[in-house]
Amino acid sequence: MGKNPDQTGLMEGLDPTLPAPAVDDSVREAEERTWTPAKIGLWVAISLLGAVAWFMLALVRGETVNAIWFVFAAVCTYLIGYRFYSRVIERYLLKPNDRRATPAEYKADGKDYVRTDRNVLFGHHFAAIAGAGPLVGPVIAAQMGYLPGTIWIIIGVVFAGAVQDYLVMFFSMRRGGRSLGQMAREELGVIGGTAALIATLLIMIIIVAILALVVVNALGESPWGVFSVGMTIPIALFMGVYLRYLRPGKVMEVSIIGFVLLMAAIIGGGAVAGTEWGAAFFHLDKVTIAWGIIIYGFIAAILPVWLLLAPRDYLSTFMKIGVIVMLAVAIIVVRPEITVPAFSEFASRENGPVFSGALFPFLFVTIACGALSGFHALISSGTTPKLIEKERQTRFIGYGGMLMESFVAIMALVAAISIDRGIYFAMNAPVALTGGTVETAAQWVNSLGLANVNITPDVLAQTAKDVGEESIISRSGGAPTLAVGLAHIMQQFIGGPAMMAFWYHFAIMFEALFILTAVDAGTRVARFMLQDSIGNFVPKFKEASWRPGAWLCTAIMVAAWGAVLLMGVTDPLGGINTLFPLFGIANQLLAAIALAVCMAIAAKRGVFRYLWIVAVPLAFAAVVTITASFHKIFSPVPAVGYFANNAAFSKALADGKTEFGTAKTVAAMEAVVRNTMIQGVLSVIFVTLSIIVILTALIATIKAIRAGGGQDHEDPAVASKVFAPAGLIPTPAEKELLAEWNALPAVKRVQKAGHH
Question: Rounded to an integer, what distance in angstroms lies between the CA atom of residue 726 and that of residue 343?
């Protein structure tokens, strides 16, 4: 494990009346290094199955490929990455020490710092990080074919995404749960820290706006969807009150009640939408829904955590993990054949109808969250490090939680590519291309010249009818496509064609739960960040309990992302189609910032031999995102470059044209000019700030290497007085120690790691 400099002091600080707070290092290492024939056989089998799956996906490419190979390739790679690669990071780079108390123990206050059972915390952390990204990005990226996205989602998470989440969480925990911005200020100085702080705030605005835009596109003009998703709010409020006052601590009980109520909301949604008054009352346009989400975002972010946010987390965690596992089982049972090519006709072009830009770098920034997400760095340095019981649990929660999110992304990709390619393009291209009707959409899709694709208006109309919607044309944003794909697979598994509409709306509500969790959690995190920033000048703002400050900062952040959301909803170019690349780039730039801060910290700790673990994903993320930013800023192709698009529409207006390209009115043309200018300026700001942070981190790293280390900003080590296992299943040595703690007298047992 390497010597911990604080080991001696911690040994002296241990309570002699309590059992050990950690398994002895020599015992634990002996357990890890013991290889029985059964263990060897298991890992050989996992490796062989994974190798066969990758071989089938990457090399044996006939007319079709079976969807089960995606499941096996993903699961086997995750297991190997978690068992071996994350163990290397733990052993050589981070060196956790369970004799050392975590902030949840030495700062315990019953509010922000609370020791939380690792399995409950895994669910809470996963619920917070898993927003729209892993559902939407892979669906949009399916335009390029199935193989590029599959490789990046699975390999990218093992070497980049999970590494970032794990490192940020560990370093933040060692610093008392400090935020990414605060860590950047300490490690990179005033210039790098200020740039990181501003970039983080601005990027957060874009991220929350795009998450909300996905919900708007999923629910627009869908009475069934609006009713069902709307009902989740009173259900979550009821669960909060139930857990707080009626039956405190009964998490499983309230989750079952919540799940039953959710099912009732979906079934009831179909019945309500089928009535004349229901269809009229819940049939809302996208602008109305956008305003509803803006108001919801403000209220949700200022309500107490226990009332809405926490019960929604319980609910959405069960739903998220349950649905993804159910979909994986359905894929293995149904074994759908995928007809999408490994590399599509658009993989070598810049002018794809779903999103513009070449495979490199735009595939990587489009998939975003499923492989590497900067948004996670804010959660991993915000709430989660304040709740961890023991240092060694960060591997299970940080690295393991991100692997779970990547699996969500793979399932989303499989669902999207399992449907007919003609339906996929009719659903995901903007209305300016499809024309908005089944006739014009079918004609346009057939004009693309795709191999083995010949869609008819009847098929498009029948698909809409099957899923209980008026239309599926230009339902962009990924969520409706994923819902159709999920319904297509699930009805073969359970219920048959008659259940298509139920499964579709089940998927829409599942996605909206996913996303609304991120919208309200994101708004809350953004508010904390703004309070911290203003607090540097007006200290009163740093007091979390000062309500006027909290309300004002929440209102500012909601107004900012609400303005971007409304811009996307009214965008004639199809808001999600033009804004998603900006979201992807911003999110990946934030990941580069997080990795840069982690590299500087690792260098100051003196672990130079293993800096490559951070440097490799940082270099890749930096190259991809800076290249993508330059494309969006400098490309002369209007479909790719924001300023080129701006110039083309400005010239059309100057020439007195009343319609141009996708904009059919002067007002629409003016909207494009305004939106592309805002997007272009934001791109310039994001990339400039990110380059400053990366350069200051490189300078800090080089200085640390030359000096043989650097200043340590960790909190002083405090001896731990509790014990808890590190992973999902306790090891034999952990079980023995746990039995000692459980045998303590009742008075002493209060101190042991409880299940909160």
Answer: 41
Tokens of 413: 């990709």
Count of C-beta atoms within a 10 Å radius of residue 287: 14
Q: How far, in Å, CA of 752 to CA of 243, rounded?
A: 23
Identify which of 707, 506, 571, 616 has the alpha carbon closest to the alpha carbon of residue 290: 571
Per-residue pLDDT reduced to its tens digit, 399-443: 999 999 999 999 989 999 999 999 999 998 888 788 889 999 999
Residue length, the chain? Answer: 756
Cβ 531 vs Cβ 249: under 8 Å: no
DSSP 142-202: GGG-SHHHHHHHHHHIIIIIHHHHHHHHHHHHHTTS--HHHHHHHHHHHHHHHHHHHHHHH
- What is the number of other CB atoms lying within 10 angstroms of the CB of residue 249? 10
- Does residue 2 register a pLDDT over 50? no
User: CB under 8 Å to 349, separation ≥6 — which residues?
Assistant: 358
Identify the pLDDT of residue 650.
95
Phi, psi of 635 (to 5 degrees): -60, 135
* Pairing between β-strand 337-338 and β-strand 65-66 as defined by DSSP bridges: antiparallel
Query: In whole angstroms, what is the distance from residue 368 CA to residue 408 CA?
Result: 13
Give the model confidence (pLDDT) of 634-671 as tens digits.
Answer: 999 888 899 999 999 999 999 999 888 778 888 888 88
**Rounded-to-integer distance, Cα 122 and Cα 117, Å:** 9
Q: How far apart are CA 64 and CA 420, in angstroms?
A: 13
**What pLDDT is attached to residue 7?**
53
Helix axes 68-80, 400-418, angle to 10 degrees: 170
> Which residues neighbour 485 within 8 Å (Cβ) at sequence distance 6 or greater?
414, 415, 416, 417, 418, 419
The answer to whether 723 and 752 are in contact (CB under 8 A) is yes
Beta carbons of 597 and 187 less than 8 angstroms apart: yes
pLDDT in the model for residue 1: 38
Tokens, residue 436: 């908005």
CA 603 to chain centre: 28
Q: Which tokens belong to 154?
A: 């699975």
What would the pLDDT profile of 104-116 be if each residue is shown by its tens digit? 999 988 777 888 8
Residue 213 confidence class, pLDDT cut points 50, 70, 90: confident
Measured CA to CA, the distance from residue 341 to residue 426 in angstroms comes to 18
pLDDT classification of 511: cutoffs 50, 70, 90:
confident
Buried b or exposed e, range 377-401, using 16+ CB within 10 angstroms: bbbbbbbbbbbbbbbbbbbbbbbbb
Reported as a single tens digit per residue, the pLDDT across 437-496 is 999 999 999 999 888 888 999 999 999 999 988 889 988 777 889 899 999 999 999 988
| DSSP string across 74-130 | HHHHHHHIIIIIHHHIIIIII---TTBPPHHHHT--SSSS--B-HHHHHHHHHHHH-
CA dihedral 84, 85, 89, 90 (to 10 degrees): -30
Tell me the two tokens of residue 148: 């590029």
3-state class (DSSP) for residue 65:
strand
Helix/strand/coil (H, E, C) string of 189-231?
Answer: HHHHHHHHHHHHHHHHHHHHHHHHHHHHHHHCCCHHHHHHHHH
Q: CA triplet 233, 235, 239: central angle to 5 degrees?
A: 115
Which residue, among 221, 209, 358, 218, has the nearest Cα to 282 in the 3D structure?
221
**Spatial distance between the Cα atoms of 649 and 643, rounded to a whole number of angstroms:** 10
What span, in angstroms and rounded, lies between the C-alpha atoms of 81 and 207?
28
Cβ burial of 151 (10 Å; 0-12, 13-18, 19+) is: middle
Please give the distance of CA 753 from its chain centroid, rounded to a whole number.
29
The three-class DSSP label of residue 66 is strand
